[in-house]
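Subject: DUF317 domain-containing protein structure
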Amino acid sequence: MPHAPANAQIHFALQPDHHPGVIATTSGPTADAARSHLHDLGWSSTSPTTMVLARIDRDEPHYADTAAEQLKRYGFTVDIAPGLQDEINTEWEWSNYPFPWCTMEEVREVSAEAQRIHDDIADGRLVVHLHADDGQNTVAVASYTTGVRRHVHLHGENHVRQVTSTFKSETEAIAEFHRLYSVAVRPGPAPLTDLERTVHQVLTGAAQADHRRTVAPTAEPPTARPGEHESFLQALFDGLPQWERYRPFDETTIAVHESLLSRAEFDHEARHRTDVAWMIAEYNGPVGERLWHTTITAGTPTLLIAAILQYLDAPPVWSGEGPHEILRAAGWHPASHPAHTSWTAKDRSITFEHAPHSTTGRWTVHGGDSLDRAAWTIRLSACASEDLLAELASTAVALAPTPRAKALPATAVRLPAAGPQPRAYRR
């Protein structure tokens, strides 16, 4: 990548509450680029200007030094606090290390693999079904939920956890685990170790504390009123004849675009905030493959649904700005996580998330700053186009400061002009 200007600075120092964790403080016009590099190296965002590194192998100073050297090669100005530099210069070793024949480089390879397993479990990419104590070590059986589906046996804890066996099916992996460990088998993952608990508290506690200091209290997310989705659907058919109505079941209405390239399905029974009310998809031909799809839960503001349908009917002229640029320009709060990047509105009423390794939820928009307690959710699969995402981001930015009491009525929702609209064939 091009070298960053020298006026972007990164200061590395020891994390005061967790030795030897490391905090990186960024400043300067190209600080976002520095944060992106640190995110790729396993750092987690705790505020718009700070990131933290906390690992289960207790080797944070080494990885901080590695990150500093990489950032220097890109042209950033890097400063390392004296206390951290002392830790970097100090040789260390694990007491009672189970592989005494390993060199330091080999120890770090084992620990790096254990860290990847830890992160995969923490981020939900690796789901633990069962665990057991074999008398000396904790063992477990787990399945990867992303990428190549693998089912594995795990052995050990913290910095020495390893994959010992791989299976083609979950059934085979669990059956073999029961055969090996019999009555010692327990459901779910083992309790967190003291070190895992500490790392988790550093990564989540610091982020929450810094976020509370830098943003306003969470505002009420804008939410569609009861019956507003029904009114919006009726307005769609009344105002846009290019969408044709089909209702194969009493509880479901399907809208098909006259081009036969787009389809929207609405569930009239969806009521709860987690119920999927809309499923919308685009295809590469009247009988072609699906390009991308989105699911939308009850309560989602109709302006966001209208933005998606308007894009499918007659895409607005795209300025070339991507969703990240639009959200950054609007002053939304960025946060980097091991598996995704999020942007939260200033009043924390709406959050935009990008999970680059996910397929069904590559992009997520939800009401509120926590997906676990979201008032509503929009999930877009991989291959959703950049101009659609930009349009959705722009609509979210316009919607975020709108108080719930002033929500627009369904009849005021922006829709394309009535009448047939020419539409380009897109892949």
